[in-house]
Amino acid sequence: MNIRLIKKVIGILMGSFIFFGNAYGQNTKPVDTIQLKSIQVAPHTYFVQGFAEMGSSTNQNFISNAGFVVTPAGIVVVDALGSPTLAQKLIAEIKKITPKKISRGDCESLSCGSRLRIARI
């Protein structure tokens, strides 16, 4: 076999491995760096503030605000944010403040209630 042909085949194989390796690496999930922090704005009333920017994979669509009120009957949640993951983080933040259960969710969108149900599972 010709040396030039062997070098070309090796070059093509190496290039293919590099290309497919990079393409495969792009399918990984973004690192979860979003941390919610509840801010008390009145007695028994808290909110978390999203980013003032367009939604993206970097900010994990944390672009809206949510709030919750601790009542004698339970927790009233106002908006569950943009994804089930963010809703889970909101519930975790609520649990840092009170052991009470969520009794009601006032949501701005139809999917908000389903995000709360999914997050509680």
Describe the structure.
The protein is of the alpha+beta class and 121 residues long. It has 3 helices and 5 strands; from the N terminus they run αββββαβα. A 5-stranded mixed beta sheet has the order 1-2-3-4-5, with helices on one face. The longest helix has 23 residues, at 3-25. The model has no long low-confidence stretch (mean pLDDT 74).
Q: Structural class given helices, strands, pairing?
A: alpha+beta
The amount of beta strand, in percent, is 15-25%
State the end-to-end CA separation. Answer: 63 Å
Oligomer: single chain
Structural shape: rod-shaped
Following the backbone from N to C, one meets helices and strands in this order, namely HEEEEHEH
The helix tally amounts to 3
| Count of extended strands | 5
Q: How are the strands of the biggest sheet laid out side by side?
A: 1-2-3-4-5
